[in-house]
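seq/struct pair 1
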Amino acid sequence: MKAVKLPDWLRWLSGCVLTALASGMLLLAAGSYYYGSVRDAWAYARGERVVVSPATVRFSPGPPGKPHQVSCRVKNLGTEPVQLIGTSACCECAVTKGLGVRIAPGASENIEFTFLNRTPVPRYSKVVSIYTDNGRAPELRVRLESVESSRPATTGL
């Protein structure tokens, strides 16, 4: 069988594509290693210095009057410490752990919410704001959503 010789421009183009792919994978691996995850590396590349994950916390509604505990993680990607100074919510939700803490650069802290459902609610979706002393990220938002009992809930971390 006779070998097919590719044109020079096609060999050059395939070399460029392979180099770009290898460079991208190397950058993703380095970002993952340094920031802990690809998501945090992308957040840093977009200019975010304080991130919250998950941004949407899903929980099963349960019976009325029973408190639900959910949590999220706030991570400081910047070079200066960040303090969590307060929250506001348009729901019956309270932060029970994590306010007032100072998060060192590269560190993270769990924030726990207690949500009290006084009446049966088939579908619930509210936003809780977490305020920081960071000028680049003065407000972080977390969405609390109820899910049907047949779907899996993400109660935080």
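seq/struct pair 2
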Amino acid sequence: MAQPIQAIVRQRIAQGLLRSDGLPIQAPLGTLSLRVVYSEQQQLAIVKQFPLEQFIVEVQHPQSGAMVELIPEIVIFSHKDGTHVLSCQ
């Protein structure tokens, strides 16, 4: 069965966020993995994982209405219950 485009986009962004943290780990599919603690001196990283289906992806468009083209600059991951929000620029 084909995944909805929203699920595919969420998964790709989640993988990109983990890679941008510079961690050499492979997160399980369907999870949002975020580095919450990192110590280079102690060679320690703590990663918290959240079920990806609990998050909604929103693209925030620039506020100016005088542009010919709009390029989204901010992606927002928000938890469905409204308790967690992650903004990526």
